[in-house]
Amino acid sequence: MLVLCQNSPQFKVLQTQFDCLINSFIEDKVGLAQHFLSEALATQLKENLTTLYAGQQFHAAGIGNKDLHLNDKATRGDQIYWLDREHNNLPENDFFDLMDRFVSYLNSSCYTGITGYEFHYALYEKGSFYKRHLDQFRNDNSRAFSMIMYLNSDWQAKDGGELCVYHPDHVQTIAPLHGQCVFFKSAELEHEVLETQAPRMSITGWLKVGG
After folding, report:
1. b/e 90-114 (16+ beta carbons within 10 angstroms → b)
2. 120 vs 23, 59, 84, 173, 206, CA distance in Å?
3. Whole-prediction pTM value?
4. How far apart are CA 195 and CA 178, in angstroms?
5. Which residues in the chain belong to E strands, given as ranges?
6. pLDDT tens digits for range 17-70
């Protein structure tokens, strides 16, 4: 992992994005940072995703975990591929370096106690969606925060696929814009992905606590 000096321009750019995400989360329970992924990294990750998808490396996402896991296309239609440092893929490892820095900053500034994370690529083909749901499992409360980072460089309003987050008093609609990050507590806010009219790509995952 590349160590950045705290006075370096690169560190200051990262800190600005981290603060933007954290401060907007504190204000409205949903953190938003439009350029959390740099243009270069977002583009590299999108290219990697499309290559893996073309190579049939994705599989249909399920609902639940362990003994409760099942596939239900009436509820969820995305295809996923889990990220892992053992893949020794340069864009993925650059992404993990970014997550390591963010987790360290989040823990030091907000005392969140994050001990790990898991992320996967997600691709929604045309006509796919994910109905309203909560990210926390009934039999596992290790997911503390949900994070979604979008990889849609040419997204337009007609493409659909917006994220709808259900607050107690309003519904927040978020466009899946290239490089943007969404951040919220996994156990608090139900959300859904509206039907997409074009391929919709992201990295989705969770910051975790406990073992």
Report:
1. ebbebbbbbbebbbebbeeeeeeeb
2. 25, 11, 9, 22, 10
3. 0.90
4. 18
5. 31-33, 59-60, 79-82, 116-124, 130-133, 143-150, 163-166, 171-174, 181-185, 190-193, 200-208
6. 999 999 999 999 999 999 999 999 999 999 999 999 999 999 998 765 555 445
